[in-house]
Amino acid sequence: MLVIEAVSHAYGALQALQSVSLDVAAGEVVCLLGPSGCGKSTLLRIAAGLEPVQHGRVELAGQVVGEPRLSLPPELRRVGMVFQDFALFPHLTVTQNIAFGLSDLPRAERQAQAAHWVARIGLPDLADAFPHTLSGGQQQRVALARALAPSPRLVLMDEPFSGLDVTLRDRLRDATLSLLKDAGVATVLVTHDPDEAMRMADRIILMRAGRIEQAGAPLDLYNRPVSAFAAAFFGSVTLLDARAEGGEVVSDLGRFDAPVQSGPVTMIVRQEALHRAGEGGLRAMVTHARSLGREHLIGLTIGSTALTARWAEGRLPGVGERIPVVLDRQRVHLFAKEA
């Protein structure tokens, strides 16, 4: 449905995107993930037609809609957009906001379609309310309904949940995903939150400094990161400096195959890689311990190596206590150290 081919973009001397290519199929939810300034919002704006294509090409449903000498206006692309601030029209009611993109329909059909979406998002009692009277979650639902009501070919969402509290955010993510999947629309969602991407995406595009660092299914990125950056972006980790000799790294955590024959290595240990053992395993000293309710956050020293672990089992150990731990080696990743 959406094809972005070798797109580069600069703001003056700042290179925001460098030869980025991706595609999104109908019914697929793709998350553009990465830190602030990595180019993900610029890419979204180019797809929407809000930024001109300087280099490369953008296609929608087989039609070229953007290249250096061609830019189809956003209103002709059949693209729905949901912005971080929702961008509802303050002078229009909920129903009128949703009906705004349905101007090509006869009045009666437009009203019926808007009423359908008001009911679909669970706000029939607020059909005549104005945006300033709605909660953040209600505004988000109206913005999504407005984007979906005209049956777009593509929906673009820019950090749509970032301004909501945690409990509401989780609930709305699930409701939003259900609406998008029911509509069968291709969706690109921009986020800096790896948990959000893991929860919502069919595929994740992880971006770094204007380039795609890694792309694939969520579990592929988590379990098989291609770089230290990719590994560290998904969850809390301990980064350790190590050295490879003879193709292996010898550490306080054991021996590991190295990504290089010799030289400096970055070892990344996920917090969930360490668990308390009944007997045997590695001997660790507890340096700090905090209960987070459903799990414990534990500081450990194994030999001369300081790590942080997170587990739910057993009692909270005391500081200074020596305990046996077991290491899940599948959650330890080694990479040649970057310059």
Would you mind describing this structure in some detail?
This is ABC transporter domain-containing protein. Belongs to the ABC transporter superfamily. The protein has 339 residues and is of the alpha+beta class. It folds into two domains: 2-223, Rossmann fold; 237-336, Nucleic acid-binding proteins (OB fold (Dihydrolipoamide Acetyltransferase, E2P), Beta Barrel), CATH 2.40.50. 23% of the residues lie in helices and 38% in strands. It is built from eight helices and 21 strands. The chain has helices at residues 40-48, 94-99, 107-120, 136-148, 166-183, 194-200, 218-223, 228-233; strands spanning 2-11, 14-24, 29-33, 55-60, 63-67, 70-71, 79-82, 154-158, 186-191, 203-208, 211-216, 237-245, 248-251, 254-257, 263-270, 274-276, 282-291, 296-302, 305-311, 322-327, 332-336. Strands 7-8-9-3-10-11 form a six-stranded mixed beta sheet, sandwiched between helices. The protein has a five-stranded antiparallel beta sheet with strand order 2-1-4-5-6, with helices on one face. Helix 5 links the parallel strand 8 and strand 9. The longest helix is centred in the middle third of the chain and has 18 residues, at 166-183. The chain is globular. The two termini are 39 Å apart.
Write the layout of secondary structure elements.
Elements: E1 2-11, E2 14-24, E3 29-33, H1 40-48, E4 55-60, E5 63-67, E6 70-71, E7 79-82, H2 94-99, H3 107-120, H4 136-148, E8 154-158, H5 166-183, E9 186-191, H6 194-200, E10 203-208, E11 211-216, H7 218-223, H8 228-233, E12 237-245, E13 248-251, E14 254-257, E15 263-270, E16 274-276, E17 282-291, E18 296-302, E19 305-311, E20 322-327, E21 332-336
Parallel strand pairs: 3-9, 3-10, 7-8, 8-9
Antiparallel strand pairs: 1-2, 1-4, 4-5, 5-6, 10-11, 12-13, 12-15, 13-14, 15-21, 16-20, 17-18, 17-20, 18-19
Helix pairs in contact: 4-5
